[in-house]
Records
---
Amino acid sequence: MSKQGVLQRIFRLQEHGTTVRTEVIAGITTFLTMVYIVFVNPQILGVAGMDTQAVFVTTCLIAAFGSILMGLFANLPVALAPAMGLNAFFAFVVVGAMGYSWQVGMGAIFWGAVGLLILTLLRVRYWMIANIPLSLRVGITAGIGLFIAMMGLKNAGIIVPNPDTLVAVGNLTSHSVLLGALGFFIIAILASRNIHAAVLISMVVTTAIGWMLGDVKFVGLFSAPPSITSVVGQVDIKGAFNIGMAGVIFSFMLVNLFDSSGTLIGVTDKAGLTDETGTFPRMQQALYVDSISSVSGALAGTSSVTAYIESTSGVAIGGRTGLMAVVTGLLFLLVTFLSPLAAMVPSYAAAGALIYVGVLMTASLSRVRWDDLTEAVPAFVTAAMMPFSFSITEGIALGFIAYCVMKLGTGRWREISPCVVIVALLFVLKIVFVDAH
C-alpha cells in the first residue's frame, strides 16, 4: 500500500472530503499561526525563575505530543499547546504574588490537570460546561484576556507601578514601549488582513529592530536542543497538595475545562463536524487527549495544555482530519533546534502578542446580555476582578458568588444550576475557612 493509501486509511480523508495535500497545507498554516507560543511561554515562565531554554524545548515537545495524539487518537483537526493566560497566572500570581516556588506551582497545575482527567473519565465534564451559564464562561475568558493584556503592557513598559495611583504610563519614548506598541499594531493590522502568521511576523520584525538598536545580541539560529533536566520531573506534587492551594488548583482545572472544551467545540463547528447539540465525533477521545496532555505538561515543566483556537486557520483552508494536527505537531518537533533564536526574543517583542491575545479574549464580552443585569453583573465582576485583584482565582470566585446573589435577589433562583451552586459554595468555604486564616 502506498503512503497516500496508508494516510487515507488512518485518517479517512476521502470520507471527510479532503486530501493529503490540503491537510499538510492546513497543518503548516496552523503551525505558523500558533508557533508564537514557543517564544512567549519561556519568557513568561522565566519570570517564575524557570530555565527559559529548557522551557522552550518542553513547550515544543508538549505541543508536538498533544497535537500528534489528538490527530492519531481522535482524528480531529485540532492542535494543542501550553495555554496562554494560565501561564501568566502561574508565573505572576502563584509564584510572584503568592510566593510559592515554581515547583509547587507546577504541582498545582498537575493536580488541576488530574482533576480535569477525573471529570473526563467520570463523563461529567460536558455536563459542567452545559450547566455553567454563558455570562460566567464569557466573563472568565474576558477576564483572563484583560489579565494577559495587563502583563503585556507591563512587559513593554507601557504601564509601570506608581505608589499614588497604583499604575501609571511609562516612558513612551523608550525602545521597549515603542517596539512593544509597534509589535501589537503589526499583529492587529496583519490579522485584520487575514495573514495567519501575523504574530510570528511581528515578533521577527521587532526582534530584528531590537538587534539593530543594540538591544538584542545575535547568537545564531540552530543548535542541538538544550537539556531539559532542570524542569522535567521537578514538579512538587506533595507540596501543592494542601488546603491553601485549593483555590489555585480549582482555578487551573476550571479555566482549562472551559478553555479547551470551548475551543474543541468552536474548531469542530467551524469544520462542520458538530451537531445541533454542540457534540462532535470522537468527542470523548478528544477530551481524554486534552486531559492527558495537561497532566504530561505539568510533569514536563510547562503550563496547562489546551486546544488552540488558532486551529481554525487550518480548518478555514480545508483541514478536516487529524492529519492536520499531526503535521502541526511534527513541525513543533523541528522547532526544538531553534533554541538560539528563541533566546534572542526580547520581552517587548512578546508583549505585543500578549496584548493582542487580550483583545481576542476580551471580545467575548459582546455575547453577554447587557440588558439583563442578572447576567451582566456576574460577567463584569468576573472579568474586572481578575486584573484588578491580580488573581484569576478571585475573579472566578466572586463571579460565581455574584451570579447566585443576583439570581436570588431578583427571585430568579430557579435559573441557578446545581453546578453553579456547588462551585459558589466551595468558593465561599474557601474564603471563610482558608483566606480568612
---
Amino acid sequence: MKNKLRLRPRLVLGLIIMSTVLVLTLTALGGAIYRRKMEVVYSREAFDTASIAAQLIDGDRIAEYRKTLKKDAYYESVHQTLQMIRQSTGVKYLYVVIPEDVQFYIWDTGEEGDEGVCDLGDTDEYYGNGYEIMHAAFSPDAEQTMLVTNGDLYGYLASAYVAILDSRGQPAALASVDISMDIINHEIQRFYLIFLMVSLGIVLVSSLFYYSYIRRILIRPIHILNEDTRKLVSDQMEALGAFRNRVHTGDELQWLGESFEHMTRELEVYIQNLAAVTAEKERIGAELNVATRIQADMLPRIFPPFPSRKEIDLYASMNPAKEVGGDFYDFFLVDEDHLALVMADVSGKGVPAALFMVIAKTLIKNRTQMGGTPGEILYDVNNQLCEGNEEDLFVTVWLSILELSTGRGIAANAGHEHPVVRHKDGNYELVLYKHSPAVAAMEGIRFREHEYVLDPGDRLFVYTDGVPEANNSREELYGTDRMTDALNTLQDPSPQELLEYMKKDIDSFTGDAPQFDDVTMLALYYNGPAT
C-alpha cells in the first residue's frame, strides 16, 4: 500500500491555507476600506484648506492683479498668509490661478527659486483632465471634485479647487490645494503592516485553539479507530470478538465505533457459521464425488461391451448436469440371442433423481432377466416403483429387446424421446409412434409395444431429452432437426466417434450457457447375424 498523506498533516495544511486566504482577504478588504476612508479625510482637508484660502482673499483685487501684474502690500500680506496656511496644514502646494486656456497664476506659496514655483503672471499647462475639472469648479455652486495626477514635475498629487468670488458673487479665481498621494500610500502601507500583524496574531491563536479542538473531537478518535482496525487486519481477524469501541465523543464518531464493534461481533459469528458451512459443503462434496463414482460404476463403461459378438457395435455415454444425475442407460444380454437396451430419464435432478435412478435401473434389469416382453416388464416395474413413491417421482423409459440373429426387436416407450434409425445407405430419421405414460406415474398402467426390424447395416440412436432441449444463451433449443443433421454429418463414424461428435456439436451450440439437463446417448450398429 502506498504511503499517503495522513489526516493530521492534511488538516494542518488545510488550516494553514484557509488561514492564509482569510488573512489576505481581510487585509485586502480592510486596506481598500481604509484607503477610501483616508481619501475622504484628505479630500475634506484639502477642500477645507482651499475654502479657507478662498474666503480670506478679496476677489475684487484679482482682476487688477491679472491686468497690471503689479504686487502691492495686500498681495504680499495674502502671500504670507497662504504660506502660513500651507505650512500649518502640511499640504504640498497651495496656489491661486485663473483657469483660462492655460492656468494663469496669481499666488503660489512655494519658496522662491524652488523648481516648479510660479510667480504672478506665470502660466502652466493643465494635467490630465484638469481643464474640465478646473473649469467646472470655476462657478459659485460647483461640486467638489478631486483631480488626481501623476507627473514627473509635481509627482503623485490629488488636487482640490474652490472658487474665489468677487463682490458680485462671480468667480474670480480658484484657490487650489495639492496633497501628495505619497502620504496616503504611506498610511496605507502602515495600515497593511499593522492589520496584517494583528490579523496573523488573531488567526494564529484561533487556529491553535481550533486545531486543539479538532484534534480532540476528530483526529484522535479517528486515529483510535484506525489503530484498532489495523490491529484487526494485522491479526488476520482472529480477535474480532475482543474488539471494543474506545471512542466516546457523543457524536457520529462514537456511533461509528459502536457500529464497527457490532459489525465485528456479527462478522465473527458469520465467519464461524461460514467455516461450519464450508466444512459441511466439503463433506457433502466428498460424498457427492463418491456418489458420482458409484453412479458411473453402475452404468456399463467397458467398450466394446461384447467383443465376441460380431452382430453389433455399441457405445453409450452419460454427462450429468450436476454431480449426480437422473439419466441412465443400460444394455445386457438376456440370453445368447437377445440383447436388452434401456434409455431412461428420471424426473428431477441431483441426489433424489439419482437414488430413484438406482432403484429403477435395478428393477428394470432384474425384471428383464426374468423374461417377458418390454410391456410386461415395465408393467411390473411400474407397480413396484409406485409403492411408497411419496415424492411423486417418475421415469421415462425406452426399453427394447433385440433378437440378434434376426434383427427383430420389440420396444416399449414410456413417455420417452422418439428413437432415431438409419437404414443402410440412408439418413438418420426419427421413428414416430404413440407413447405410453411414464413409469411410476400411475399404478396398473399397461404399456404399448412397438415391433421393428433392423437389417444388416442399420443403425439405432436413442437419447434423453437433454439432447434436443439443450439451450444456448439466446434461449434457443438444440432441437431434433439440428440433432438429425448432426447425426448425418459424418460419413461412416464408429459408434464412439458418432457420440463424441454429437457431444461436441451440442457444446458448440450451447456455448457459455450452463448445462440444463443430463445428456445421455446410445448408438447401436446392427451388422447382421454372425456367420
